């Protein structure tokens, strides 16, 4: 059984043609990408590294990491989104990024201990078994390498901000983008990472001011958050 939800794949597939429109439903991803890119690069130093982006979608993060000098492979199971990513790479002239339609678990069996950096951003809350994705990421990173995750915490504040606020009131995201029961507490994600042998390095929250449209990283992990892990050398 593939660790993917067909409804989730269809949902993002239907929007695939709008992935690179910065004023589309993917506007928040375009806005937060510089923050997460700089945070990843500040810790892992992407230049010259072999990088895997799990759940790459239309390639916003994968493309930007390649522009930092990394050799990037983006993987996803959303066929339409991957085609958009491939087309953008050709049009934008980013030859150091490639894309494959393959499950993380399948690639982990095929290519263990392969990548200097593995990223999995805004994906775990969309799959049936997120802990399986964490295991796959830990398998694919080289000893001494970095693994980065980002997702949404599960608590009343996250429901208010990420679903009611972002999807229904502010309409930053299409209604139904997220399902509250699939949100993941930082403690849960940290436990899954430790169980795979990863060491937790640091955690950052991501906040948003709807009045100014500004996003920033902070110590508040109660809604959106990022986790950096390392595989012991």
Structural account:
It catalyses: a 3-(all-trans-polyprenyl)benzene-1,2-diol + S-adenosyl-L-methionine = a 2-methoxy-6-(all-trans-polyprenyl)phenol + S-adenosyl-L-homocysteine + H(+); a 3-demethylubiquinol + S-adenosyl-L-methionine = a ubiquinol + S-adenosyl-L-homocysteine + H(+). The chain has 233 residues and is α/β, with parallel strands linked by helices. It has one domain (6-231): Vaccinia Virus protein VP39 (Rossmann fold, 3-Layer(aba) Sandwich), CATH 3.40.50.150. The chain has 8 helices and 8 strands; from the N terminus they run ααβαβαβαβαβααβββ. The protein has helices spanning 6-14, 27-44, 60-66, 79-92, 104-110, 130-140, 156-169, 186-195, and strands spanning 50-54, 71-76, 97-101, 115-121, 141-152, 199-209, 214-218, 224-230. An 8-stranded mixed sheet has the order 3-2-1-4-5-8-6-7. The two termini are 32 Å apart.
Shape: globular
The CATH topology is what? Rossmann fold
Average residue-wise pLDDT: 95
Strand arrangement in the largest pleated sheet:
3-2-1-4-5-8-6-7
Total E-strand runs: 8
SSE pattern, N- to C-terminal = HHEHEHEHEHEHHEEE
Q: What percentage of amino acids are in beta strands?
A: 15-25%
Compute the number of structural domains: 1
Helix/strand structural class: alpha/beta
Radius of gyration, rounded? 16 Å
Largest sheet features = 8 strands, mixed
Low-confidence stretches: none
Count of DSSP-assigned helices: 8
CATH architecture identity: 3-Layer(aba) Sandwich
Range of helix content? 25-40%
Amino-to-carboxy terminus distance:
32 Å
CATH class: Alpha Beta
**CATH level 4 superfamily:** Vaccinia Virus protein VP39
């Amino acid at each position: 059984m593939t660790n993917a939800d067909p409804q989730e794949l269809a949902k993002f597939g239907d929007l695939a043609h709008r992935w690179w429109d910065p004023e589309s439903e993917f506007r928040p991803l375009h806005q937060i990408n510089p923050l997460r890119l700089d945070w990843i690069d500040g810790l892992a130093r992407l230049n010259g590294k072999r990088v895997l982006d799990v759940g790459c979608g239309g390639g916003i993060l994968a493309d930007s990491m390649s522009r930092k000098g990394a050799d990037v492979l983006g993987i996803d199971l959303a066929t339409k989104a991957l085609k958009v990513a491939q087309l953008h790479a050709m049009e934008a002239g980013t030859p150091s990024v490639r894309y494959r339609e393959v499950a993380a678990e399948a690639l982990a069996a095929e290519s263990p201990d392969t990548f200097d950096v593995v990223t999995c951003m805004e994906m775990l809350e969309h799959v049936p078994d997120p802990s399986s994705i964490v295991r796959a990421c830990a398998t694919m990173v080289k000893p001494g390498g970095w693994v980065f995750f980002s997702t949404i915490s599960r608590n009343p504040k996250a429901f208010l901000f990420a679903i009611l606020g972002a999807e229904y009131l502010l309409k930053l995201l299409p209604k139904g983008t997220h399902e509250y029961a699939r949100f993941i507490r930082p403690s849960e994600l940290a436990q899954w990472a430790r169980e795979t042998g990863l060491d937790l390095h640091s955690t950052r929250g991501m906040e948003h001011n709807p009045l100014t449209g500004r996003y920033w990283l902070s110590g508040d992990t109660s809604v959106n958050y990022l986790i950096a892990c390392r595989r012991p050398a």
